[in-house]
Amino acid sequence: MFDVVVFGSANLDLVVATPRIPLPGETLIGSAYAEYPGGKGLNQAIAAARSDAAVAFVGAVGADEAGSRLRSEARSAGVDVELLTISSHVPTGRALITVDEDAENTIVVIPGANDEVSAIEIPGARVLLAQLEVPLPGVVEVFEQAQGRGLTTILNPAPAIALPDELIRSCDIIVPNEHEVELIGGVDALLERGAGAVVVTRGSAGVSVTQSDDAEDGAQSWAQRAFPVEPVDTTGAGDAFCGALAARLAAGENLRAAVRWAAAAGALATTIPGAVPSLPHASETAELLTDEEM
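Above: the chain's sequence. Below: its structure in token form.
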């Protein structure tokens, strides 16, 4: 029995630092280059594990050095990788990331083996968490399966694409950022189409939460302020939030408490370069929350 099952992508992130995001057709000189384990699925699985959840990861990598590195990184974080398959004919996915001096980024993903991720019978768990860097039919199928088995389902709709009704109806919680939420129809439309709650991450503006009319705690909408930090790279902050949110919900916390923990984890993730290296451990998140209460 796992706390969280993550269904999603695994990539090797190729990250370049530049003074600003280049304009179309423009060449800039970068100031640094690094390679990090990444992919929204892997990031979120590790983020959940570092928030003390027992995590299984369902995904795919290539039979290459990058794939071996990603499997090793997940295992080192305590993530179960028995369901992280190895493709013999396509390479591990890549993400090309540019980070500017204001810690903003642009990302281009080359799916590779992620395109081979398909629905399976998910193992026993409390929470299912997925994103959209793997084929949509598989996401729809595992969400319907999870809902039928009573799991809490969380969808991070990134990259933002049109969502079928059957997927939205299977979502207890949808977690877009402030740009993605408009691209997938807006908060009101998502709730009208059957989502249980919409949690919108808004960077330095914090988090807004809107629940359906039948929310157990009776609160329809509320906000969580951002935690003050000095950001150096926002890559992975949303994944830190989603993984931490899933972990705390699996631990039995209510949505308000879980969002507060996740907001602290997301803030800490902006203070260290790279996605996986920046994902905070539970002790670090707890320390930030304690400092804010003093």
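The chain has one domain: 2-21+33-293.
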